[in-house]
Amino acid sequence: MITLRKAQDRGQADLGWLKSQHTFSFSSYYDPEHMGISSLRVINDDSVAPGAGFDTHGHKDMEIISYVISGTIAHKDSFGNIKTLPAGEFQLMSAGKGIYHSEFNASNTEPLHFLQIWIRPDTLGIDAGYQQKAFEQSSPLTAVVTPNGENGTLKVQQDATLYRLVLSEGEKVTMARTAEQASRHLYVQLIEGTLDINGTTLTTGDGAHLTQLASVDFTATSGQVTALVFDLSANA
After folding, report:
1. Is 34 annotated in some ligand binding site?
2. Where is the Quercetin 2,3-dioxygenase C-terminal cupin domain (predicted)?
3. Residue closest to 230 by CA, chosen among 37, 1, 89, 34
4. In the prediction, which pLDDT does 193 show?
5. Which residues pair with 6 in a beta bridge?
6. Which of 11, 90, 130, 182 could form a disulfide with 29 if both were Cys (CB 3.0 to 4.6 A apart)?
7. DSSP state, 213?
8. Confidence class of residue 138 from pLDDT cuts 50, 70 and 90?
9. 150 is annotated as contributing to ligand binding
10. DSSP for 120-145?
11. 101 annotated as belonging to a binding site for a ligand
């Protein structure tokens, strides 16, 4: 089963300096039919004006992933991390017992476009932590976040794996699923291009919830495709 979430149907917020589109209920956007999937609670598609950003604020008991599509994030947190996150890199902040941070557009001339993702942890009150990495795209589906941090991936405190999917126009890759794997949830967030998933077409900004599929065919039908693919527990 494939349930499509069209880009234009997402929640909208416009604060002038920030334009945000919410896949799931967030802040003043509330839709009881879109509260998250499994442990995946937030996907915010954020565009931040030059020089603007989020002042220091706190988080607790949440795994927060940022992926920069264009521009650069300037990050500073209460554990002394002062980092820049350029386009193509992933950041994973485990809020745990509590962390304060700020994130700004590092440029005074160019806009910032990034995805902010929240995943509920499977254990509360862990020590806060910070991870950041650029990943080579060694295959069409490259794991970037895993529960145990295997093969140099970022480690998330949850039974969840995040892949980056990159396909050239006309290219296809198949994700085979065992019966146990097919009982899990897949969520796809398309960043660019046009993507066919088992006959369902996604365009830029669209998402899709996939369940009970023994095999998933990803085909780039127009332009280069970049997407994030979440593999999520059926029980979280």
Report:
1. no
2. 144-232
3. 37
4. 98
5. none
6. 11
7. -
8. confident
9. no
10. --SSSSPPPEEEEEE----SSEEEEE
11. yes
